[in-house]
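Supplementary Methods S3. Input chains for the assembly prediction are listed below.
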Amino acid sequence: MMNEAQTGSDNQDTVIRLEAVGVRYRIASERVATFKEYMIRRFQGKIALGDFWALRQIDLQINKGEMIGLIGPNGAGKSTLLKLIARVMRPTKGRVWVKGVVAPLLEFGAGFHPDLTGRENIFLNGALLGFTNDEMQEKFDRIVDFAELWEFIDVPVRNYSSGMAARLGFAVATDIDPDILILDEVLSVGDEAFQRKSLARMENFRDRGATIILVSHNMETILEMCHRSVWLDHGQIVMIGESKQVVTSYKDAQGPIDISDGD
Amino acid sequence: MDKAKQIPIYDSARQGSPAVEEMRSVLKYRYLIVQLIRRDILTRYKRSSLGVAWTMLNPLGTMLILTIVFSRAFGGSQEGYAAYVLSGLIAWNFFAQSTNAATLHLVWGGSLLKKIYIPRTSFAVSATGTGLINLLLSLIPLLLVMLIIRVPIRWTIIFMPIPILFLAMFALGIGLLISTMAIYYADIAEMYQIFLTAWMYLSPVIWSPEILPEVYRLWITKLNPMYYLIELFRMPIIYGQVPDINLLLISAGIATITLFAGWMFFTSKSDEFAYRV
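Predicted structure tokens for the full assembly:
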């Protein structure tokens, strides 16, 4: 462990390092949802626990300022990988090392309470992201400016259109100076003008030296924004390298019929 | 390294005990707890005309009904039954509401727990905090009722923070235990409702222990943690007594052990929550 820690401090540029990471989900072969059911099956001796490795032997290094794409079919383990980096989950095996403030992008408006006003929700959402009241006070004007919601800021969010709520959520979540930004298919939300605006903000983050991890099923977006890409399948890294090559190989492997599926 | 900004480093291999980590996290996220409490208080009565006054009117109404219906049946000889039952209800409601809310909020917040890191105990802690605010507010009608029915309010009232603290510790501990189980099995929350109802009738909320037949008294009182906590709660305010040292020690023990057990159980499982909710 000491050795590994030292290599980490040697390389100043690494911000994320995964070493032989594995994540195991322990799942009952059939999902037992209720306690009653559990007890009944237990008496019948029918609880069969199955192991399912969502990620296996993942080794990955991501450097500062990189914009890296993450591709692969559904169930490949992409979201699990993001959760590890965002500290939401802990690896079953191996080691996850992350340097810097990680900003996961909530689905727009996740964590909003419909009965609270836009103003109140900004503070609530800010607190969920780990900010203090004072910090949010300082950000408040900028957030409302960006979301263009001054008119409605004291109206309960239940009266917002979904687009307005999305704008507010995005404005709160991205009014930060993160070292690492995680984007899980979020750029596909909102109208075109809003998408352009959020894209511009992403590029702004990148220019300021933030590391960005982008998950997308849209290969155009990946090619456009990411220099390097990781292709995951069945919990393992199939290929890692320049986006162009990875995307080409990925497309070839998919075969001629392109089934674009949402998560 | 020469950067002025302190860069936090997360290393999954170098994590301490989950129980201690969680405590540190909660302290760091105290603003979140405050915001969650604020949200609960604001939204609960947001669309009602009387607003927060319901916190006080609710137990008062129940007390009125119970006093009329039961004052003859249970503890009819007892003076100040209205204050007795109201104080019991306040303590009980605090416990029931806090533990219930802890469970509901964790299930509500489950989708958030999958996406961002927040201390997982935030929901139970804020639920207890919300309960505490409601409890403090409902002490106002209790004091009013005491004035009206001439139950003397003595200086011993300054001891009230002690039973309230123990009650809160106990509620948080149970809330953590129940909400952990509710994550795994959806019907735990329902079962807990039934259990709570039974538990309330087995606790000295609306009846006083003296009316119990000798045979049952031991079982219903001595083995019921809420018996001690409710009695300790009444002592300084209704009975006007300095808390009895034995009662105090037992209650402290119950509160500490329950909170400890709940915290350990919750934090030992909480890394799995993101897989389950």
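Chain B is about 70% helix and 0% strand. Strands of chain B lie at 9-11.
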